[in-house]
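Postdoc handover notes: sequence design on the structure in folder B. Input tokens:
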């Protein structure tokens, strides 16, 4: 005798329950909350990325100098837009400077060093300059970056705290006294 299949459970025709869909949507929502803030730096402008990279390098050199008790230098070539690091080896008349970066870093196209201010060199807007990182702190440092020309130009400032090496970033040209 044939039996009716109505009312019986069939694995082939089964779908998701409302509860399963709600749980899945909640998990996806939580994952999006964690992932989206991390994507923001990738959508930021090139000059923001550059300031973050330089700020991170300054903080790293400050910590490295304090932990290794060595003197480091951060060099800038304002004409070519390059920067690199070195360690100062020796004392007195027998000082040598050894580059420690595998490759000199280049500012992205359209971004340039407007000027750099250090305690040793005051304000420099061309040529080569360096700042030193000591185990007890760093030389006062202000870096001004510029992107674009005319109405589209943007100015950014990085100011390093001489005692802590902490870098403050401003989205404008900030002078020493500000």
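Designed sequence:
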């Amino acid at each position: 005798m044939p039996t009716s299949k109505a009312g019986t459970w069939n694995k082939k025709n089964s779908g998701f329950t409302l509860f399963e869909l709600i749980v899945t949507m909640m998990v996806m929502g939580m994952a999006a909350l964690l992932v989206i803030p991390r994507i923001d730096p990738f959508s930021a402008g090139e000059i923001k990325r550059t300031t973050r990279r330089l700020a991170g390098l300054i903080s790293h050199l400050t910590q490295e100098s304090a932990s290794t008790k060595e003197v480091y230098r951060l060099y800038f070539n304002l004409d070519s837009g390059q920067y690199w690091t070195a360690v100062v080896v020796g004392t007195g008349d027998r000082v040598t400077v050894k580059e420690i970066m595998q490759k000199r870093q280049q500012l992205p196209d359209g971004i340039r060093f407007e000027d750099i201010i250090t305690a040793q060199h005051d304000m420099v807007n061309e040529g080569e300059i360096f700042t030193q990182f000591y185990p007890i702190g760093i030389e006062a440092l202000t870096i001004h970056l510029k992107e674009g020309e005319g109405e589209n130009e943007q100015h950014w400032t990085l100011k390093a705290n001489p005692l802590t090496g902490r870098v403050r970033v401003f989205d404008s040209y900030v002078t020493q006294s500000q």
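Context for whoever picks this up: The chain has one domain: 46-170. Don't rerun without checking with the PI first.
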